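pinning this so it doesn't scroll away 📌
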Amino acid sequence: MERPLTGRTVVVTRARHQAVEMTEILEASGATAISFPTISIEPPSDPEALRQALRSDSYDWVVLTSTNAVMALEAARRELGTDESPWPESGIRFCAVGPSTAAALEAAGLTPDIVPSEYVGESVLDALLEADGNLDRRRILIPRAAEARDVIPDGLRAAGAVVDVVEAYRTVPVKADDEATRRLAGRLAAGEVDMVTFTSSSTVLAFRAMFGSELGGSLVATIGPATSATARESGYEVAVEAEEYTTSGLVRALESYYAEDATE
């Protein structure tokens, strides 16, 4: 039986140094995958801000919304060493938004106390309230990209929490490879691309800056609701949204979409 993605051409937008896991999964599923870097993950403008937060033992919770945030946190911890950083012995609890972030946290030797079911502000707030009971005056650290949305910190502050948002890394649009960009633009215009996938809001915005909102009939798939919201704000109609916010979950969503399409 032919697999749903056989013969489909899928663009994988990603960070420049990101692993090509999704590309490999797509190709193993029968698709033709075009790996296209749109952003680069760079150090924060002020590395000392995160190091200073790590020196504190006054936080009740740390909310991590991406694997990049976990990696930045762990790099800062290694730079400080155990003498300067009281973590994890201080009793700080961790909220990892999504299974990939939870897995990265565990790989760093830190245990996620809660993993909200969805990457939306309401789910994070509900999960923290259920685990803690009361967020009033709880101190919460959110290390993240400077460009991220404020839905989660705003929701936590509305519940009475004291929230410190610290830039842990920057997402920077890559300098376009003119030849690669021209080739992809040509394929989009010719209708040769079935689906463009986005795994973060940053990849959406960088892709939009390169190619505009017209995708030549290509459909759009995202890794979750936050990325979908950015895609729609950028003028893209979202055809597929992963239920599990991982690259594997996104590929499964694509397979389901095309399997249903084949039966109609």
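📌 and the second one:
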Amino acid sequence: MMSLTNRARGAGPAFGRMMACCAVVAATLAIAAPSSAADWKPTHPINLIVPWSAGGATDQFTRVVAGELEKALGQTIVVVNQVGGSGAIGTMSALEAPHDGYTWTAGAAQDLGAYETLGSLKTRITDWHLFLSVANIPILSVNEKSPYKTARELIDAMAANPGKISVGSAGVTSTGHAAIDRIAAAAGVQYRHVSYDGGNPAVISTVSGETDATAQLASEQVEMIRGKRLRPLATVANEPVTVEGYGTIPPLSATLPGFTAPLSYFGIFIPKGVPDDVIATLEKAWRETIANSEVVKKFAASRGALFAPSYGDEAQKIAFPAVQANAWMLYNSGQAKVSPDTVGIPKP
């Protein structure tokens, strides 16, 4: 199991500030008053669309959180995987469904915030109610039989062979793709992107040798790391991660001094325009159930994620740095069609 306690012991001031922020968010959730009467009682199952394939980080965390919400709402939540368009297809289905509170979607807020810039879906994070549960950390890994033993060796290979080293990701806008793009930009190298319909198949591509590397989330890689099928080279973050049964994975900042990466927050998204009592009920469930859930907390720790529940204005605020960084990186690399500053995302 990944130990956040072990991380905290040796972490620097940046990690301390990050954990303090998470504590403030949790405290705010505990004392915040409901915005309106939280008396919505769903009369039939709720559809929760995961716009990525089964087994990936979004799918994993969504199913755990949904199980906890079912207890609070007294109703079944049906999780449906609808892949395509790097998450845009499933998200569009939730956006276009009747706004009656019975169709939600899930994922990383930074993905949701990039669709309009990419030209794949006209929507922004401000069009949604965000209910965030965790922050996920990407890891740069290679196949256990790979000749690359360190992040420096892999980056040097990318520099020596521009566009030749293949990297599997869950698709354009995904956290894994944003992570490898951030590495390439910081190191001044090029790689060959191979897109899959989710984090799990992207990770398996590196396990099988179909791709040379992946930068998907820790939660999608831990079992393969423990099983010695993947060799983790660095966290795409400012801090190390300790994997029980493996050891400590150093931060990429140890290889690329000055490297930074904003946290990527994951959660459930409900389009604005649904009845107020639906949102008030979900906010109450987030305060009273999710923010206090030992099930979600323990699962996050076991998958190398930070437990950081939030909603409302606070969720919009903490999610925006990753949205901003991702949108501008996509635009500056020529992958996005629309300048972010024309759709409400100023330059970082």
